[in-house]
Every structure is written in structure tokens, then in C-alpha cells.
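Appendix B, record 7
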Amino acid sequence: MEKERKISENRKAKEAEVEIIKAKIQESKSVVLATYNKLTVLEVTDLRNRFRNASCEYKVYKNTLVRKALNELGVTDFDNDLNGATAFVFCPDETSGCSIIAKAVKENPALEEKLVPKSAYVGGAYVDAAGVKKLAAIPSREVLIAKMLGCLQAPIANLAYVLNAIAGQKS
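C-alpha cells (predicted):
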């Protein structure tokens, strides 16, 4: 009887964890899956801080629980990627998680073999490791908006400069 109760409590805890994971997946615009191997405490702390500064969340869950959560959401593409030590990064946008991992590896070459992106779940679709690298190369939303505004502002600024030069010649 006691063993049965323990199994029941354990099962309820796992079901609650699956519901939490499902909610995080649904709230995130992207979820990056990465292999982590022999990261030091300092490296993990640095990564967590980088992700936190970008409003991302770095978590490690049991692969079976994440697989169950994804399957309940109707996503089965990640079954092959949910093996071994896997970290999950839940992001409020499509590119920040990929970019942070790429930047961390670029700044600290020792991470190249320790932290390897496997795949991502972006906009309800599966993205493979090559796609994750491409996403990392895309600038953030803020940078893209700034570039667009610069492009829109340049012709107006040039027109103002020309009109000012013409007005200066006639005096």
C-alpha cells in the first residue's frame, strides 16, 4: 500500500512537471536544445546570467519529461534530439537563445565542445542544428529595427542637407 502511494505521488509530481514544461514551451517564441558536457560551475553561471539578461531561461530537465510535454503538444520531431545531457533555453524571441550560445562559444573557445546546439523549436516548427547556426547569425529585433529606421531616416537627412546647402548658396 505504501509503495503504491509513493508511486502515485511520484507520478503526480512528474505530471505537474510536464505541465510546467508545456506552459514554458507555449509561452516561448523559441526553445533551443543544446548538449552540455562537463561545463564548470563558472561557465554555467555565466551562461545563466547571459540568458537572464536577455529574458531567456536556461533549464535542465529530464529528456523523457520534455519528450512527453512536446508529444502532448503534438510535436514529435525532437524525439531523436532528446538523448544525453540536454539543456533547454526558453526564449521570448526567435533568435536570442541561438545568438547567446554562439557568442559564448566564440568568446570562450573551450565551450565549443562543451555546449553544442542540437535543435530548436521556433514558431511551432522544428529547426535542426544548421538552422540554429543560421538563426544565431540574424541580428536581434532591436538591431533590425534600428537599421530599418536608419534607412528610412537617411533620405530625409540627405534632403535636409541639400536644402540647407542650397539656402546657404543664395545668401
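Remarks on this record: The longest strand covers residues 115-122. The chain is about 60% helix and 15% strand.
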